[in-house]
Amino acid sequence: MLNIFKNAFSKKQKSDKQTIQFEQYDQQQQDDSKITNDFPNDFQIIDEQAMNIIESEYNNKQQIQSEYQEEQQFQEDLIEYEVKVDDSLYGIALKFSICEDYLMRINDLSSDLIFQGQIIKVPKRIEKTFSVVPIQEQKQKTEYIWNPDTVSQKFEVIYCNNKQNVQGQLTLTSDLVLFNPLQQDHIEDNNQKKIRLQACISMKDINEAVYYILPNKNGHLDYIVQILLSGIGKPKFEKKYRKQLDRYKEQKKSIATVFFRHAERDHTGKLYTEEIKKLNCITMARFITEACSNYTAIVELTKLPFIDFIEDTTQKQNLDVDVDEIQDVIGERMGKLWASLEYVPILKGISNCFTDTTYKQVIESIPAIYRLANWNKIYDIEIDGSSYSNMLQEIRYIFPILLIIKDFDLNIFGAYISSEINKYFEGFKGSGETFLFNIDIEKNEVQTYFWTEKNKDFIFCDETGLGIGCGDKFGLFIDQSLIFGYSNPCTTFDNPRFTNYEKFRIKHLELWTIEQQ
Question: Please, what's the b/e burial string for 159-198 (b: 16 or more CB within 10 A of its CB; e: otherwise)?
Fold first, then answer.
């Protein structure tokens, strides 16, 4: 082997010398404007096999040395980072523009589980912070919507809305969600005003994003990303109701929602697989939720031609929303959006209390994050019997829940319970998303009663029974016998009595919960 290397090396030197002579010879021939195909007499072909060995060994050595130098430089630039309460490994990797696997390797982590206060190493030299553009600077440079150096991801989607479904590209950056249609068209609204189809959402106006896998009318599956908003890009409106909107933002309570459905084909016409569509929707929802939870800048960039404004009694009371004031940006109610998605959530079971119409009306009033879910019946005293203990065992750790009752006077009423009921607990639990409702059987209409913010008496549960809402008396109380209950006006929801008398007998009682994806 040594002789081979020596032989190759000597031939390499000779070849280099001959190559230089050849180049000089060739240049002289060109200067004299003569064309010749003759090579120098002493030109020889080198040993190619030996040269390949030499070059391979040399390249490997150079690569190892380069990687070592880069690793040494990179290790010198590592800094310590303290994990915050809302941090995840994915979010930290996104923030510092590195992959999760590498972050785990440099910290000797065996899983992606991290905890608040934990100190981990992150690269300093590629630290990525979310861009903050001062408002005055933004006004002076409105042509630059986002930093072109910002890492972004692009997806082929369909913007689903109550006007028309528009196909285009969704671009996600650390501070913006952008939608650009394939065709830069305009449409006319009811007031004959032209509406641009582009959409731009600042991360400051987003609470979270979720994805759904829904069957469409053709029997296939659609992959949907829903973005829940705390702002709608209307400065005058948001300034007028700033305190209420800030409180909603802290509570992760949304006032509007938009939907994007994953496209069936890419820009070349190639069909996406089901796995790719699902993975992309998970990525979109996860990226947006992580980005908006870490975003701190205040940049008024949100512009949406189509959104669904979430109307409920709470907002009407607290915000006194004038629909005409924001009619140029708000969409129709949820039913219109269900139609645009070619999907309507259903009850996965037979109900003695709900009709198809009243069920949909109740669903329109629940938090937007659950409005595309189907609902399964988890308890029915007609089937499961009147056992309070068994009922609590069935709904343990499950939320949200729809409770609906029909009494022997044929009154129908119930509650949306936003939090889990973990058997017996002391005091009141729950959140302001809980509400009571009753149904006008003659009109087939639902009346909802939302949190008044006068107290926080949402859910009470002990060995005597289950109560929803309180004041001087419970708004709705189910006795542990599951045979009778009580209905009264209460401070929590300002509801009327739902029954003919305070005490009523239960004819039907059903509990429903969302179908898990």
Answer: bbbbbeebebebbbbbbbbbbbbeeeeeeeeeeeeebebb
